[in-house]
Amino acid sequence: MPEEDKQNTQNMNLAKGMAQLNARLRILEETISNTRDKVEILNDTLMKNKRALEDEMKDINIKTDESFKEIDNMKNIMRQMIKQLESFATKREVLVLQKYVDLFDPIKFISKEEIEELIDIKLSDKGIGFGESGIKRADNILKKIEGIEKMNLKKEDDE
């Protein structure tokens, strides 16, 4: 019997050890399962963050491209403005033109009616009658003056 008792004690100790190992094994399995769940949650969160960052990067790239296009457009507009500004008269050129206008003084030019009146006055002062040939000459002069006026008007219209 002592051997049986000894064997029973050994069996009980062995069963106790097995129960302890079994409990430890369950705790380890539960820890591994919890760790797997946490890793899966972390992986999902990382994937969502990655997608969000990729979307933000696409938006930033699109906005950057749009900004570069706007900058290029503004550069082209500035180039066109510079070309147009080059065709404008400078202050010096305007002053030169003003001197010429002052020199010619268009206000002092005489109209067709004034020329006719002056011719009439001069001829009558000298006592020259028009006669047939005088009237023809005066008509020729008036026609020439009218032709010059028409040419000037045509030039103004063309400009």
Structure write-up:
With 159 residues, this protein is mostly helical. The chain has a domain at 105-158. It is built from 4 helices and no strands. The chain has helices at residues 2-87, 91-104, 112-125, 131-158. The longest helix has 86 residues, at 2-87. The chain is rod-shaped. The termini are far apart. The relative contact order is 0.03. The mean pLDDT is 83.
Helix % is over 70%
- End-to-end CA span: 139 Å
Mean pLDDT: 83
Main sheet characteristics: none
- Overall structural class, as computed from helix and strand content, comes to mainly alpha
**Which residue ranges are poorly predicted, with pLDDT under 50 across at least 5 consecutive positions?**
none
Order of SSEs, N→C?
A: HHHH
Using only C-alpha atoms, the radius of gyration works out to 56 Å
Shape: rod-shaped
Number of strands: 0
Quaternary structure: single chain
- How much of the sequence lies in strands comes to under 5%
The count of helical stretches stands at: 4
Which features would summarize this protein structure in a list?
159 residues; mainly alpha; rod-shaped
Give the topology.
Layout: H1 2-87, H2 91-104, H3 112-125, H4 131-158
Compact summary:
With 159 residues, this protein is an all-alpha fold. It has four helices and no strands.
